[in-house]
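Thread: Newbie trying to understand structure tokens

Hi all, I'm a second-year student working on a class project, and my supervisor (Dr. K.) asked me to get a predicted structure for one chain before our next meeting. I've only ever worked with sequences, so writing a 3D structure as a token string is new to me. If someone could post the tokens and maybe explain what I'm looking at, I'd be very grateful. Here's the chain:
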Amino acid sequence: QNSNKNLLFQSGGYESGADIGKRRRLNFDGGSSSSSRPAGGSRPNQTGYKEAQTKALRSVSYTEFQRMNAYDRHHKMMQDYIMYYGGKMEDLLPKPPEEVVTDFDLLKEAYRFLPEQGEMDDSTWEKRMAKKYYDKLFKEYAIVYLQHYKESKIGMRWRTEKEVIKGKGQFICGHHPCENTRDLKSYEVNFAYEEAGVKKQALVKARVCPECAYKLNYRKIRKLEKRARKTEKKENGKDQPSKKKKKKKKKKDKKRKRSEE
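---
Reply by user tm_fold:
Sure, no problem. This is what the structure looks like when written as tokens:
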């Protein structure tokens, strides 16, 4: 009797077990409630089906969103914003500045190889930073850059603490890529350089090997070699005029003769 009472339908009729199971499956799959389903039918209406579909899609998108990392979430949210409100991704991203000035750029502007009075004082933050860096350097011997020695272009800088501990520039050749430790000699070089648009000169000590010493004094050695060749030619009587000079003399003699005639 209890089972028969449970099978009673609201309209006063009876419903079979198969119909009850079908109605339960529809309620579970479609998510339709008694309010969205018509009183006399077993199928859900269109609004109930749409509600169930949106709930399923929301649950799937939420799980995918949880699995994303911070970058993917941000990218998806930006794409959704553009899709709903319009626009371009370039307009939303912040534009980088055209010229970025770093601390290293400011240090290069304020630093001086041999500062004079007022060039690296405590007046500005940049000068204070350059002075702090300058005070940490060791100025007994210099590190030399001789890659362009044939063009008479030589670079010099003071040694850092790590280089002093290693012995670079004193017990190891002062040329930056050279690691020679034999037959090192000290040279006092008249270093002419340009800094902040001003030409300067200073006597700087450098300790290098024989091969790098030739590069360091390349210009002087070339001048001495030329002078020696000239003196040898004069002594041996080989200082004769060249062919071009002979031709010029002949032309001048011809012009003189024509003018005399």
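A couple of things are worth pointing out once you decode it. The chain is about 50% helix and 15% strand. Confidence is low (pLDDT under 50) at residues 1-15, 28-40. Feel free to ask follow-ups in this thread.
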